[in-house]
Target: alpha-amylase
Amino acid sequence: MIRHAHRALLRTVLVAALAALLLSLPAQVGTARAAESGSSEAAATETFVLGGSPPPGPLYLVGSVAALGNWSPEVAVPLVWSGHTWSVTLSSLPTATTVRYKYLAKDRDGNITWQPGPDQLLTTAAAGTSGSARDTWAGATTPVTTAFTVDATTWYGQNVYVSGSLPALGSWDTDRAVPLASANYPFWSGSTALPPNTAYEYKYFRRNPDGTVEWEPGGNRTATSAPSGSDTYHDVWR
Model:
């Protein structure tokens, strides 16, 4: 009889514990959902406004957090032109966090011009609040005189040119490339005006008397134009 009583008591305790566990599950799920809901709301809203004299073309914002593209120009945040300034409002920034950011311009060929100067810094607003950053695109916008010199041998009737990804370099159109002079042969030299602080690609080629061209071997050369003033490149035909 005692054993039966113990077994009955044990069953009663187990049933009560199971019932308590089942009753607690909806509350736990609700708590988890509330936590998820709270985490989605724990973001800062910031409005970025850019004035000054940026280059023409679409402007973008990029920076050190995921909402700003993690410094990747390919996923930078586009700005909207209001008639006086460029701006964008983001509602997915981490709260109370110092972020680094910068503006950039892209032309229709995909060439990127970064805002001159050091990175901008912003400490985002607290959760549920908003803030703003007003910036100015400063620095030179005057084209940079860029000289190209390449050590290249040719035979009679050939000429050497430089072409590249910027309009001032012909946008890879050999008919609009920059001609180089052979006054100091075998050094061929020429110059053109490039937008400042702009990343680009370029390459040399020979043009034969019949109009056909011979590109130098290897991949495209890469460079970034100077922020202001002038710039010079000395290369050797590969």
Remarks:
- Residues 32 and 38 are 10 Å apart (CA to CA).
